[in-house]
Amino acid sequence: MIHSWFMEKTAVSNNMPNSGSHIDELAPLRRDMLKFARLQLRDDAAAEDAVQEALAAALSGQRQFNNRAQIKTWVFAILKNKIIDIIRERVRSPGTVIAVDEIPEDAYDDLFNEKGYWQEDARPSSWGNPESSFSSRQFWQVFEICLTRLPENTARVFMMREMLGFETEEICKELAISSTNCWVVLHRARMGLRLCLDERWFNSENRNAEL
Amino acid sequence: MLNCKQATALMSQCMDKKLGTLQKINLRFHLMMCSGCRNYNKQMEFLRKSCEQFPQQDS
After folding, report:
1. Which residue has the higher pLDDT, B8 or B57?
2. Which CA distances in Å does A72 have to A65, A76, B57?
């Protein structure tokens, strides 16, 4: 029974009796959760707390699961909520100012000519069938590097939108920025992420070596 | 007529809100003419899909 598998594994993390091997099976899930939380929060201690709390909440649930993928989806849903709580708390603490112009307005001007059309060498070329990269561990490493290279608040707004499932209006409200600023930040984040993936994966030797 | 710089901004915006009718028509027209922006648009969709997949990747 997968459900009992999960209960045993999570019990280990709460210092209940264990038989050693269980730790090995829980470790990858915990590691993935931690990686995700660190990326969102950029704070190791807060990420640790979020993961512990999410696992504890998962343990107290009485849900049935058919496979490990379902468990992962569910535990990550809990983790996302924990991360959202932490972000809300942070934003409310006095003195928090969200800078929205981390990526300057002219940062990507080089990609376009004076009339605003793509420069010849900057015009986006096809990525072929990019979804085939999803099965590559190396692709996800590059993806993470590219997210980490975005400036902190830009990354925060982008990940709130694309990974934590906020609507744009909610992001504006939570972070107290105007909706125009919000769209501008999202646009620059997408531009930056696209460029990074283009350079480091889709037009790089790495990908050709692996696929 | 939109240029590519304006079109990329609209492609991003349309992932977050409904565009006005005129904006939609202008963008559609631009995409018909511009293969670079068509690629860009597909890549935007791919970014979204990647973010959905990110927590589910096997490690």
Report:
1. B8
2. 10, 6, 10
